[in-house]
Specification:
The chain is α+β, with helices and mostly antiparallel strands. It has a single domain (about 40-169), classed as Lipocalin. The protein has helices at about 1-25, 60-65, 75, 105, and strands at about 40-55, 55-60, 80, 85-90, 110-115, 120-125, 130-135, 140-150, 160-169. An eight-stranded antiparallel barrel has the order 1-3-4-5-6-7-8-9. It comes from Spirosoma pollinicola. InterPro entries: Lipocalin-like (IPR024311). This is Lipocalin-like domain-containing protein.
Length: about 170
């Protein structure tokens, strides 16, 4: 008798569980495809340096405001990665009075070229200088990281790691 009740209970459990199992299968007609290209126009939302620049600053955007009379240049420039490999920056009025080109901070000038292979982005400036970036993220926020020296306000032989977040426009 007890065995018969257990069998019925098990049968009811299976009858109830099967529709729940099959009902949980989801047919997603609009799968999310991760953006893997850097193509698009972006504004700088963050730029950090490690170790600290001059032993004081990790936030390059904030430091640039101190060094450049409260200039919002780094937040104002638009960096565009075009289909076909051109990379450009604009020259907003907030950048025109800086004593150094914006490419000093970003490695990208108005006539740069870009290529991407996996998570490696190579940018060649108009003067032929190449910088290799590691792409940390793509999509709404493009995260880039690279290594280089600091040439402003004083040249330094220290190798710094720069991390830049760009917000897609």
């Amino acid at each position: 008798m007890k065995n018969l009740r257990s069998s019925r209970l098990f049968a009811w459990a299976i009858v109830i569980a099967i529709p729940i199992w099959f009902g949980s299968c989801k047919n997603d007609d609009n799968p999310v495809v991760a953006t893997t290209t850097v193509e698009g126009s972006y504004k700088i939302s963050a730029l950090t340096i490690d170790p600290k620049a001059l032993g004081l600053y990790t936030d390059v955007v904030a430091a640039s405001k101190l060094f450049f009379n409260n200039s919002t240049c780094l937040n104002d420039i638009t960096i565009t990665f075009k289909t076909g490999g051109d990379a450009t920056t604009d020259n907003p009025s907030s950048c025109q009075s800086l004593p150094v080109p914006v490419s000093t901070f970003t490695g990208i000038d108005a006539t740069s070229k870009w290529t991407q292979s996996g998570n490696k982005l190579t940018i060649t400036k108009g003067d032929g200088t190449k910088t290799e970036y590691t792409v940390l993220s793509t999509g709404t926020i493009l995260g880039l990281q690279w290594q280089g020296t600091l040439n402003y306000p004083v040249p330094s032989a220290t190798i710094y790691t720069y991390t830049m977040n760009l917000t897609k426009q």
